[in-house]
Design goal:
homodimer, alpha/beta, Dihydrodipicolinate Reductase, domain 2, Alpha-Beta Plaits, 3 domains, 10-stranded mixed β-sheet, 6-stranded parallel β-sheet, about 35% helix
Chain lengths: ~450, ~450
């Protein structure tokens, strides 16, 4: 095979496409810890070139050898001395075309691009398979945490019962500061943007889509299911207020943005939603930019994996582990653990209809302060067989809309109910004259053991 | 190779030696989740036989096929249709001879036997290498947590800066109950024995040796160092009293039995010792029989792995993951990640002399209630340049020895000091007339971020 590294020298040529934050981290790690990788795996990854449109910005790698930078990605990845292609451009445009070009040449591709995987995974897995090569994507979920390897290899003997993941560092950083400093969302977001913890265009993170991309990757590995994003209902963190955080706390919970995958009677129940977790649960203790994933297997029981979910170095650690795996697979002449989703379960499971996902919920209504308003709201819930577990009537907050000075926020927690029934009840409540805008706040509750 | 599984059928014959708790769990998992393993890896593990001296006890596996049980381990493992040998006998007698026999036949061995690895690891790794085969031992540390795979493969690009592990479920169970129920060690141990959470002969667990065995395995993988147990100072949990737990709590700490491996200026600093951890640290939140390991890498930063550290099913999950890896390695004709310690670092690091390990400490002295006694103790510490950070003088506890009705327990925390200096200071204090027996209690403090 033309792409095999020479077995005498046991070197393996690597091309890095994209010299941004993570690309620079990968280059730095290959330069500084290349000896370690060679000692541990028996193959030395050798950097053949780095492609980026911007070849002038200083990436602060003082010992970067001269002559590695190019703007011509297609030519670099096609070089015969390049055996492994690392895609760190991001997005689904140029990145996708380069990944396809590399796979078509039979070269393994390492990527951190969850958006690409979530949107074009099945096509890329098929393309890799057709060309007898592989796609490696440990860095796409959980940053430096080796969660995909744990799921695919470490827990190979387990049917995966459930996965609960804090998968977006930006969201977790914002929620942590909102709680610790009792600040509203917009204030913390602005500060996070200034500090570099949130993008100038933060929507992908805070509206939950990035978490959904990662949930789709996890679903593929755990359940063998091709996971179209449309199957995963997504709710971000914009609607979380300090009042919600405080109400949750008084009930013994902390709010986290959670990706949830669970094997249910109708298939995989998948969702991304702000979720109330018991304060003493390990996931509730994950603060700041850290990520964590709890995986439950039918044999092993509960396991949990924790670490930095993003950033130059953490992501580089995962990319370089994949480079090592790809190099070993090239040496062996065959991939050890097939990366195709079809290989990850006996029979791929279908997704359950989101309407039928049953869970407990936290709801907050801002009601007009008139007699009977809560009774009418409660009746709407009862109409759809949704029982209440607790009710907190809060004081009118300082930031009450001036148009509605007399509003009272009421927070309730419900008994388990299907999402569809809750939709209907909330629509009914929305049609009563009792509700003050903004619309009803609705989060999930998971009483994890 | 005679031990290769047939590549047409892609089946792989497995012999299980030892049909105790874990052996039964492995057999059950292979029977029930064999299809899943076959789908995920492309190789089906097929149980060829189970060897145990006791072939009559009911292991509660209703669908166990007839004819698998034998008392003749050597004959079973030598069968040509046995490709992988699983050693679950434990100990270093018969188990070692059978492991050696299998390796000498060029057959890969999967084991959960940390005692065997800690005591004879280097010889067994060498024997495996000489016979072009491998030893797999994921189940030897952390039960079902895929911690060794994470360390060896997932963090392959990292120099390991430190490892902090809660590695013994029995100890953690006892400490959790001592704290939650404010009970003395002996009472909880007796209850744990009745409930099956502690052995009738509990010394291996509660005196820290089991944790030291696991620390030795981790040190080998992380630092490439052959790890003779004599290099690892070990202190168990017998001396922890409810008073210590309470004093630690009032200082903001919880006491855990911790294996600590750290890269220091003089080499690997290794120890097993009761350790005070900040109450809000993730490791402090690990309760009951669970294990957790925090691994710090120079690229990835802090990562943490959590799960059941023992038991039939959790351990079986790890053993079966190793069976899958061994089967894939057989198919590939070569092991993917060499298991020999020499392969896990550029240059194996030496162990630092235990005397030079510098840490903060918690000390408790039971002093005669006479003026000046604490001043004399403090002077002994100052003589060896050991500064104090905090002092708690407790009330005389109810269980004070009747011979010393007037004793006062005093707990202090020290500034960082080398263990050797502390030894000398404590010896000096022991020679003063101020100390009441029992001897000085001495734990470590780690202010982990």
């Amino acid at each position: 095979m033309s792409t095999s590294p020479s077995s005498s020298s046991r070197e393996c040529g690597v091309a890095v496409l994209g010299f941004g934050t993570v690309g620079a981290g990968v280059v730095e790690t290959l330069l500084h810890n290349g000896d370690l990788l060679a000692a541990r795996t028996g193959v030395r990854p050798v950097l053949r070139g780095i492609a980026d449109l911007d070849t002038t910005t200083d990436r602060h790698i003082p010992d970067l050898p001269a002559g590695l930078l190019t703007t011509d990605s297609p030519a670099l990845l096609a070089r015969p001395d390049v055996h492994i292609v690392v895609e760190l451009i991001g997005g689904t445009g140029i990145a996708r075309r380069l990944v396809e070009q590399a796979l078509a040449l039979g070269k393994p591709v390492v990527t951190a691009n969850k958006k690409l995987l979530a949107e074009a995974g099945p096509e890329l897995y098929a393309l890799a398979e057709a060309n007898h090569t592989q796609l490696y994507f440990e860095a796409s979920v959980g940053g430096g945490i080796p969660i995909l390897k744990a799921l695919r290899e470490g827990l190979a003997a387990n049917h995966i019962t459930s996965i609960y993941g804090i998968l977006n560092g930006t969201c977790n950083y914002i929620l942590t500061r909102m709680e610790q400093e009792a600040l509203p969302f917009a204030t913390v977001l602005a500060s996070a943007q200034q500090l570099g913890y949130a993008e100038a265009e933060p929507s992908l993170d805070i509206d939950g889509l990035d978490t959904a991309h990662k949930a789709a990757v996890l679903a593929t590995l755990a359940y063998g299911a091709p996971a179209p994003l449309a199957q995963i209902p997504v709710q971000g963190i914009r609607d979380i207020s300090p009042l919600d955080i405080q109400s949750a706390r008084s009930l013994g919970y902390r709010i986290k943005l959670l990706a949830i995958l669970r094997k249910g009677p109708r298939g995989i129940e998948a969702s991304v939603q702000p979720t109330l977790l018991p304060l003493d649960h390990t996931l509730a203790a994950v603060s700041g930019v850290f990520n964590a994933v709890q995986v439950e297997g039918d044999v092993v029981g509960t396991t949990l994996y924790y670490g930095r979910g993003a950033g130059r170095a953490a992501t580089a650690s995962a990319v370089c582990a994949d480079i090592a795996d790809a190099a070993l697979d090239l040496l062996a002449g065959a991939p050890r653990h097939p990366r195709s989703p079809a290989a990850s379960a006996e029979t791929p499971l279908p997704f359950a209809p989101p309407d039928l996902i049953t869970a407990r919920h936290y709801l907050r209504f801002n009601l007009h302060d008139v007699p009977g308003s809560f009774a009418r709201v409660a009746a709407c819930l009862a109409n759809h067989d949704i029982g209440l577990e607790s009710i907190i009537q809060n004081e009118t907050p300082d930031d009450a809309p001036s148009a509605a000075p007399g509003y009272v926020p009421v927070s309730v927690t419900t008994q388990p109910a299907p999402a569809g029934a809750l939709d209907l009840a909330l629509a009914e409540i929305g049609a009563t004259p009792d509700l003050v805008q903004p619309p009803i706040t609705r989060f999930r509750i998971e009483a994890l053991a």
